[in-house]
């Protein structure tokens, strides 16, 4: 469920979030300086190792190195000795959503406590994983509650009382090996996962801060990443539908590359001269780029031809998404676009041509301190900023709990196993 606004203002240690994105790992640090306001301290990105494919960790050893390196660089940037823990943002190709429910008959009327709600959530999670051994629950987000047959959206807490309680959830699930590789990556990095959030919920938490009425009226969020594009449809307190397509802005670059140019030229042309639709090109320029097939020769391509190439891939990406979106268009009002791929020229106009909904960029501007550098207003940071806001709320909810034991460094664990005279056969993922 999208977060409820809190009123905590006291200074806390830096919040750190890591986004396991389509093809890279990005870490952001911030401080919460006022209710629903962050001061961004810094961002670091690591793309050195090929270990993430379409938002899923495929090689945990390299991912662990990237996490460790990103946090080391981030610690240097913000002037601290080290950063030991981080909130984790997950999603990508393996994510699916299902609606589930947990129910408890208390026999006689009882106060509804946070401990009871935690028990119901754990019970629901365990039931899903027991019935589906190959599945792991990434997150369970409450959509609504039923107390003695009376439905409510707000979380019930003392002094509310009831005999029969139901909690209806949206469960974000994935293959168990995917989530295990995320845990293994942090284990190998010798770092701690403070909490794990799913990307759609982080995005909604960031974008809804600007105007929460959009959630009541219903909205869709189109997250355009490098290797995946995710559509999430939301109304009230419920996820109506989600769809992940394993294609993104990187695949547009690869299609341009097939004209016979170097991938670096293709990326530069897309970002600087690219447009989502040929009819939006005001001046049809002709560009000459070196050919990789015939050294010494030039490839000629016009800006309208480039736009046509881009649109062909966008049409392929959007086809399955518009099928999912169409049945809900009468029930919702707005479609937000976000993510790095949304910065392509003409994206609002292109998406508007595919739907009857009002299309606009999602904004997290109201969550940033007034002196925030312009770069952090970019839509590619919305999910990370949403994760930091959720992380701040998580700390507030768990502030009276003892801190979790710090993870041992991976190589320290290996050493301990040898000291216990246990044979260790170390094999990484295939």
Q: Report strand %.
A: 25-35%
Form type: globular
Low-confidence stretches: 1-10, 403-430
Give helix and strand order, one letter per element, not per position: EEEEEHEEHEEEHEHHEEEHHEEHEHEHH
Instruction: Write the CATH fold name of the domain at 96-174.
Output: Dna Ligase, domain 1
CATH architecture classification name of the domain at 96-174: 2-Layer Sandwich
Helix content: 25-40%
Number of separate strands: 18
The major beta sheet can be summarized as: 5 strands, mixed
Strand order of the largest sheet: 3-2-1-6-11
Count of helices? 11
* Terminal-residue CA separation: 36 Å
CATH class of the domain at 96-174: Alpha Beta
The gyration radius over C-alpha positions equals 23 Å
Mean of all residue-level pLDDT scores: 86
Briefly note the structural class of the backbone: alpha+beta
What does this structure look like?
- Helices cover 33% and strands 30% of the residues.
- By secondary structure, it is an alpha+beta fold.
- Among the domains are: 96-174, 2-Layer Sandwich (Dna Ligase, domain 1), CATH 3.30.1490.110; 249-316, 2-Layer Sandwich (Nucleotidyltransferase, domain 5), CATH 3.30.420.40.
- The chain has a five-stranded mixed beta sheet with strand order 3-2-1-6-11, sandwiched between helices.
- Strand 12 and strand 13 (229-235) form a beta hairpin.
- Residues 1-10 and 403-430 have low confidence and may be disordered.
